[in-house]
UniProtKB/TrEMBL annotation:
This is Uncharacterized protein. It comes from Catalinimonas alkaloidigena.
Length: 78
């Protein structure tokens, strides 16, 4: 196990890498990738790359199904 990795430390590391935990947590494979990282089976770089791939796959799936969230433009009248 990677010594000194706490939940908050893990979240902070992901935020520094530009990955929002709440976006990737629901992706298939997140738990297994996190377990592999915490067990020391994959490096931090491989872990971050896996999460980016999971997130990209999830976003592509949402776009294909028409469920992608469109950003809100605060300048437009609702």
């Amino acid at each position: 196990m990677n010594d000194g990795v706490t939940t908050m430390g893990l979240w902070a590391m992901l935020l520094l890498e530009g990955i929002m935990v709440f976006e990737v947590a629901g992706c298939d494979g997140f738990v297994e990738a996190t377990r592999q990282y915490l067990d020391g089976r994959i490096s931090r770089m491989n872990y971050v790359n896996q999460l980016r791939e999971l997130l990209a796959h999830e976003r592509a799936r949402e776009e294909a199904s028409g469920m992608a969230q469109t950003p809100v433009d605060p300048q437009k009248d609702v």
